[in-house]
Automatic annotation (TrEMBL), chains A, B:
Keywords: DNA-binding, Transcription, Transcription regulation
InterPro entries: DNA-bd_HTH_TetR-type_CS, Homeodomain-like_sf, HTH-type_TetR-like_transc_reg, HTH_TetR, KstR2_TetR_C, Tet_transcr_reg_TetR-rel_C_sf
Name used for this protein in its record: TetR family transcriptional regulator
One GO molecular-function entry: transcription cis-regulatory region binding
TM ranges: none
Classification of source organism: Bacteria, Pseudomonadati, Pseudomonadota, Alphaproteobacteria, Hyphomicrobiales
UniProt organism field: Aminobacter anthyllidis
Residue span(s) of domain HTH tetR-type: 10-70
One Pfam match: TetR_C_24
Length: 214, 214
DNA sequence: GAATTAATTAAACGTTCGTTTTATTAATTT
DNA sequence: AAATTAATAAAACGAACGTTTAATTAATTC
């Protein structure tokens, strides 16, 4: 046999990407074989090489797609106003939603970096660094404006990212909590962690100052 | 050739464990071959099978050792007094120190769980869950005593653990910050995140209350 | 110092891996 | 309807994998 009836390159490639993300997330890149992936797609292994030159390029392509989607999603979610606390809120909420909705792809992008060769690794890390810089900028702006208490911008950014990305480790939809509830709790923790002056607290701080001024 | 001069079972096993942790942390369990590991130790691949029945049992043994050391270290570091804030401080400081000192073993224990078969996985998760429960207990005790502000004990425990374990992702000794400096910053973030009433803040809160009472 | 045990090498086993080559059929274009 | 291009199957490649078996030497015990 050869070309099958109804076969379509676009659909096949999408099916390969989909199956690859699932399989690699579950078993790890090295453990997944091209034959296993092909079987999942319902095709012979050789057919995969029409879409990706080799196994590593497939992995790299999945990661690149994930990171570029993340950047795009954040660009669209970023609020127009430049209040640092509002931007921090948007960042955390967007980050959690994006990653929860892409648990498998996130696992792949975070855990399989070591399987990339130099150049492929560099290109992914570049995208990741650019994204992380967004958070550092928010934190610095907030600290400069006196709206956040941040000892060390870099450390705090890493701490927050680890914390909110970690949601995917334990979160399962259809269980006790919804994404919105989890996001609310994590937002509250982020705000306390950064000593954010919310409107309410702000009023409180001002009240205290007024009391003392008397 | 056969037995080599000066060979010693104890030393060889230790060398295997050491090399395995380094190699698996860097390349991943599936990517490391028994021949590669043997070469690193300076021995033939067959010699490894005198110490571990197979590749997976080697991995499981490394993880078990790591988790048991973690439990032991915490037992020794746990403060005698039962002030929740003091216990939280000890937990975070001990956790960061332990993991920073064992970056590679931590990577193995956290990232290679999917390579374990059912029974081996269960035994490791049991140890991990027991350890995490320590933190949940501290948080609940603190919340019950009114010393911590914790919305959700489970979520907060996971958030803190992700945050402080994440140190190993970016921390490198001999760079800008020492372990103690990093620990101090993370402790400050943890205390804010949990709304901990330290002595200083406690006094501050009492002062505010007094001011208002006038 | 002979017998035994511990530690290791060397070689081989069958299996599976990523990838390539070649042939074949479906769909599209002319 | 013939020619061309796209999508796949089938088979084969050498290399590498985890593991086993058998032989060999060092260290220890008797």
């Amino acid at each position: 046999m050869a070309r099958t009836a109804g076969s379509d390159g676009g659909r096949t490639e999408a099916a390969i990407r989909d199956a690859a993300v699932q399989l690699i997330a579950r078993h790890g890149y090295e453990a997944v074989t091209m034959r296993q992936l092909a079987a999942e797609v319902g095709v012979q292994a050789a057919a995969l090489y029409r879409y990706f030159p080799n196994k590593e390029d497939l992995l790299h392509s999945l990661m690149r797609e994930h990171m570029e989607e993340l950047a795009t999603t954040w660009e669209n979610a970023r609020p127009a106003n430049d209040d640092p606390v509002a931007r921090l809120t948007s960042f955390v909420a967007n980050h959690i939603r994006f990653h929860v909705e892409r648990r498998h792809a996130t696992h792949v992008s975070n855990m399989e970096l070591r399987s990339l060769s130099r150049d492929n690794l560099t290109s992914i890390l570049k995208l990741r660094t650019a994204y992380e810089k967004e958070l550092r900028t928010i934190l610095r702006d907030g600290a400069d404006a006196g709206l956040l208490e941040v000892d060390d911008t870099g450390l705090t950014a890493m701490a927050i990212i680890q914390m909110i990305t970690g949601v995917i480790v334990w979160f399962r939809p259809d269980e006790r909590l919804s994404v919105d509830e989890v996001t609310a709790t994590y937002l509250a923790m982020t705000m306390r962690l950064t000593g954010a002056k919310t409107n309410a607290e702000d009023r409180h701080v001002r009240q205290d100052a007024e009391l003392r001024a008397r």
